[in-house]
Each structure stands twice: as C-alpha cells, then as structure tokens.
Design goal:
Protein name: ABC transporter domain-containing protein
Oligomer: single chain
CATH topology of one domain: Rossmann fold
Strand order of the largest sheet: 6-9-10-3-11-12
CATH superfamily of one domain: P-loop containing nucleotide triphosphate hydrolases
Structural class: alpha/beta
Keywords: ATP-binding, Nucleotide-binding, Signal, Transport
Distance between the termini: 70 Å
Organism: Vreelandella olivaria
C-alpha cells in the first residue's frame, strides 16, 4: 500500500510540470505569431531624438509609382502580392478605399503609411522619390487607426508635449467621450472600454498628434448606427477643416458621397471608380466587394 501511494505521488509530481508545459503551449503560439507580425513591419531604428519639428514639410502630393509588394511564400502556395499600383494623394483630399476581404486594402494602407516599403516601384513626395534616410520623416506625416489597434494611455501633442487643451475639449465632446474617460494629467487612467469606445479614444489620440494625414481602417464598423452617421456627416468634415488628408477604408455605401474619390482594391490591383462605376458602388457596395 505504501509503495503504491509513493508511486502515485511520484507520478503526480512528474505530471505537474508536463501539464504546465502543455498549458503554456497556446501562449507560446500566440507569442510567436505576435513576434512574426512585429518582424514583418519595417520599424524605424531607435534614435535618442527625432527632432519632430524638422521632420515634416508642406507637401502637396504623395505618389505611389508602380509600387508592388509580395508576402513571403508559404509551403502550399506563393505569398499574396499587390501591385503594381499607381496612386497620387493630393493634400486636403478625402479618399475612400473599398474592397473585399483579402483584396489587399490593409497591405496598401501599410505601404501608404510607410510601415511597409515597396519591393519595387517608389514613393514620391512632390515628385521627389524617397531615399532610405527619408522614410522616418515620411512616416511623421501619418496618424493611423487600424482594425487591430493598440491603445496608448497618454495624450501627446505634435512634438511629444502636452496636447492643445481647447482641441482636446472640442474632440472629447465631438466623440461623446467626456463622461467615459478619466485623466491624470495627460494620462488616461481607464482604457477598459468597448471596442467602439476604444476607437473613439484612438481618434482622440490621433487628433492630439496634429499630423496632416489620417488613415482610418474600418473605423466606423464598431460604432452604433447613430454615431456612424455622426462620423461620416460631422467628424469627417471636422477633420478636413483641421487640414487633414483622409484615407478611409469603408464599406458604408450610404456615405460614399462624403468622399472626393472612391478607390477599390481587386485581387491586389487598385482601380478608381468614377461616373457610373461610382454610382453603382454607392447603390450596392456590399454586392461589389463580396463578388
């Protein structure tokens, strides 16, 4: 009896580390995926100071010229690719981008904002191609809110200082977040919010930065219908009045009239919808992007 008990206890002690190792396996898998996503981004190298005020200039046109990008090949199939793409954004424009799942919208967004660098083609600012040392400066023009956003808990102005108090009060009201957020100076002490509220907070953080280009990836998808209308009919014009150039990834066909231009990704290729094509998309965007 004593031998059996001792044997059972020995098995229990041996089993415990094994079960702990098995339990940790999903966490390790998630960590690997996260590291792979981070390594896929072309992040800027650490520098002691960036000199924010010197990194921007009064651009008038950003151009993607014959830009292509391909993800690494997988065992069973070649990596997804987009391009070659030609696109020019003019300062002050409101551009909507539509497309089905897997069409390349998010990849184009990352190329446009400088998170990815083209594997062929070039990006030009007012006709001048970006050199390797220009990419950090280029990225400083953008604020972006992606669908898989990460929220920081501190409001920062254009050069890392405290943001404009009047601007923050105005946008807290516009976003309906006055009673939702608590502050300790510039730090937000409660970020445990619904997804729709998290995106509103991300908008507040982006406005505080006062950068001149704002990319919004399905920002309105998690808002209730009433605030979705506020976003398209009121917030977009307010953002434009702040001097921002807007790139809005959206499937909300009822609001395509708010865009100066309507672009669509189809199988890694970019087309601009005009005339009857744009009217057809505005009548039934869901049918177009699901086809």
């Amino acid at each position: 009896m004593q031998v059996a008990t001792t044997f059972s206890l020995t098995l229990l002690f041996l089993r415990a580390p094994l079960m702990q190792a098995i339990g940790a396996f999903p966490t390790l898998i998630n960590a690997r995926v996260a590291f792979e996503k981070i390594s896929s981004l072309d992040l800027a190298a650490h520098r002691e100071a960036f000199g924010h005020s010197a990194l921007r200039h009064n651009w008038q046109a950003l151009t993607l010229e014959q830009v292509s990008y391909r993800y690494p090949d997988e065992e069973s199939r070649p990596g997804f690719a987009i391009g070659p793409i030609d696109l020019t954004l003019k300062r002050g424009e409101v551009v909507f981008l539509i497309g089905g799942n897997g069409s390349g919208k998010s990849t184009l967004a990352r190329l446009l904002t400088g998170l990815y660098q083209p594997q062929s083609g070039c990006v030009r600012v007012d006709g001048m191609p970006l050199r390797e040392e220009d990419w950090t400066r280029y990225r400083q023009h953008f604020s972006a809110i992606y669908t898989d956003l990460h929220l920081f808990d501190r409001l920062m102005g254009p050069a890392g200082e405290s943001p404009d108090p009047a601007l923050m009060e105005e946008w807290l009201a516009a976003l309906g977040m006055q009673s939702k957020l608590d502050f300790d100076g510039d730090r937000i002490t409660n970020t445990n919010l619904s997804q729709g509220q998290r995106k509103r907070l991300a908008m507040l953080l982006a406005v505080a930065e006062q950068r001149d280009l704002l990319l919004l990836d399905e920002w309105a998808a998690d808002q209730d219908p009433q605030f979705r209308r506020v976003f398209y009919r009121e917030l977009l014009p307010q953002l434009r009045a702040l001097g921002k150039t807007l790139v809005v990834i959206s499937h909300d066909d009822h609001y395509f009239d708010q865009a100066d231009r309507l672009l669509e990704m189809r199988g890694g290729q970019l087309v601009e919808l005009t005339g009857e094509q744009r009217e057809a998309a505005s009548r039934d965007a869901v049918a177009r992007v699901s086809g």
